[in-house]
Amino acid sequence: MIGYESRNLSSLFQGDSFMGNVGAGFRWDILNYGRIQNNIRAEQAHFRELVFKYQEVVLKAHQEVENAINRFLRAQQRVRFLQEAVQAANESVELAENQYRVGKVDFQRLLDSQRTLVLLQDQLTAARGEVVMSLVAIYKALGGGWQPNPFPPVPETSPTEES
């Protein structure tokens, strides 16, 4: 510390009123030690909580990806089975048509075969849609997102509209 000290204001800035003081300082929060320890423990507990939340998010993401992949594989397998069923129903309809032409079966039998074929074709179409939807679910579960086109297409103008 450096400064001036004088008993009279008139002699304050004279040479003999100049003074100095040198000393070391030390500060120790010994009385706050318990509070500091508790703050450290609270921060450690908060850190562990964040780690557990992170682990939970990672496990949930893994589960979503695994479920989407399983759904995709099951849907593909269902499509294969339904394709075989549609092919067999097609053959059944052809056979029923041939038998109906020669008079061996009535029209109801032919109609039932065609109805079964249409139902199987409808199920096959739905199963193909499920394959696509499960593929989108895989993409989203892996972090993909859908964003609209930031640059919409500019409509073309014909030469007569410009003039």
Textual characterization of the structure:
- By secondary structure, the chain is mainly alpha-helical.
- Helix content is 66%, strand content 4%.
- The chain has a two-stranded antiparallel ribbon with strand order 1-2.
- It is rod-shaped.
Main sheet: strand order: 1-2
The count of strands amounts to 2
Radius of gyration: 42 Å
DSSP summary: helix tally: 3
What best-fitting shape do the alpha-carbon axes yield? rod-shaped
Largest sheet: 2 strands, antiparallel
Mean pLDDT: 84
Terminal-residue CA separation: 87 Å
What percent strand? under 5%
Structural class: mainly alpha
List low-pLDDT spans.
none
**What is the helix/strand order?**
EEHHH
The level of helicity is 55-70%
Attribute tags:
rod-shaped, mainly alpha, two-stranded antiparallel sheet, 163 residues
Question: How is the topology of this model organized?
Answer:
Elements: E1 2-4, E2 18-20, H1 33-101, H2 107-141, H3 159-162
Antiparallel strand pairs: 1-2
Short structural description:
The protein is mainly α and 163 residues long.
